[in-house]
Design goal:
3 helices; mainly alpha; 117 residues
Length: 117
């Protein structure tokens, strides 16, 4: 059932109760400001993404260098561990002195090739 107010409103509004709102006029300057601001924000985001990707690539290269260095140090550490794990310390010291430091036994003669070939 419709009351009197509903009937009057239906007669006034021929659009079945739809009352169009007044459209606000948007200032062209405001549209320009919003558009430029949006454009600047998008450019900033894209620049930030590109710079971040470049930094990631640089850090990956640094990581590769550090991984190689770590592997070399691990190999060197294993070599030292094997040297230290020898049972006879005197044998280790003699071998280290001869191979690494270039020492020789008192009665030992060493011959070096000086021909340059």
């Amino acid at each position: 059932m419709l009351n009197e107010a509903d009937v009057r409103n239906n007669k006034k509004n021929k659009n079945n109760g739809y009352v169009p709102k007044k459209q606000k006029r948007t200032n062209p300057l405001m549209k320009l400001v919003v558009t430029v601001t949006g454009f600047v924000f998008v450019v900033y985001c894209l620049t930030s993404i590109v710079l971040t990707q470049a930094e990631i690539a640089e850090k990956r290269q640094e990581l590769d260098v550090l991984v190689e260095k770590a592997e070399k140090l691990e190999d060197e550490n294993e070599e030292y561990q094997s040297m230290l794990s020898e049972e006879d310390e005197r044998t280790f010291m003699e071998r280290y002195a001869v191979e690494v430091l270039g020492y020789a036994y008192p009665n030992e003669r060493r011959f070096y090739d000086t021909a340059g070939n």
